[in-house]
Amino acid sequence: MIEAKSHSEIESAKQAILATMRQSHDGEDDTTVITQDAILATFDRVLQALTLAVAGIAAISLIVAGILVMNVMLVSVNQRTAEIGLLKAIGATSADIRRLFFAEAVWLSLAGAILGFLLGQFGSLMLRLAYPQLPAWAPAWASIAGILVALITGILASLLPAGQAARLDAVKALGKNE
C-alpha cells in the first residue's frame, strides 16, 4: 500500500513503483499496480449494471401493475354494468361515469403507491439495522418519483376500462342484470 501526496502524482508514483519492481525482479514486468481510480471505475461499472438491472425490474413491475389495475377495473366494469346503466338512466353522463372509474383508479393506484413506499421504507430500515455501516436511504426525489410513477401508471391503465364503462348503453346495461 502506497499513498501519493496528491491526486496529480498518482500516475508518476505508479510508474516509479513499476520501475522499482521491474529493477528488483531482474527486468521482468511481472507486477501489476492497481490505483484507487481503477477500483472506483470498476465499482462504478458494477453499480451502473446494477442500476440498469433494477430499472429493468422496475419497468416490468410497472407493466404488471398497470395490467393488474386495468384488469381490476375491467372486472369492476363488468360486475357493475347494472349500476352503470342505472346511473345513466337517472341522468349521469358518460363523462360522469368516466370520472367515477378514473377516481377509483386513482385511489387504487395511490393505495398501492403508499403501500409500496411503506414496504420500501421498512426494507430500508431492516437493511440499516442489519448493516449499520450501509447508508440504505432512498433519496426523497426517488420516493416522490416512485409514488408519481405508480399514480401515472394507474391512471393510464384506467383509461380503457373507464371508456368502456362510459360507452355502455343504459337500457342494455340494465337488461344485462336480468
Jot down its keywords.
single chain; 178 residues; mainly alpha; 6 helices; rod-shaped
Protein model, in words:
The structure is a single chain. With 178 residues, this protein is mainly α. It has a domain at 58-175. Helix content is 78%, strand content 0%. It is built from six helices and no strands. α2 (36-79) runs parallel beside α5 (140-167). The model has no long low-confidence stretch (mean pLDDT 85).
Shape: rod-shaped
Q: Count every beta strand, where a strand is a DSSP E run of 2 or more residues.
A: 0
Characterize the biggest β-sheet: none
SSE run: HHHHHH
Strand content: under 5%
Structural class: mainly alpha
Distance N terminus to C terminus? 84 Å
The radius of gyration over CA amounts to 30 Å
> What is the mean predicted local confidence, pLDDT?
85
Secondary structure: helix percent: over 70%
Tally the helices: what do you get? 6
Residue windows where pLDDT falls under 50 for at least 5 positions: none
Spell out the blueprint of helices and strands.
Blueprint: H1 10-24, H2 36-79, H3 81-89, H4 94-130, H5 140-167, H6 170-175
Helix pairs in contact: 2-5, 4-5
Question: Can you summarize this structure?
Answer:
This protein is mainly α. Helix content is 78%, strand content 0%.
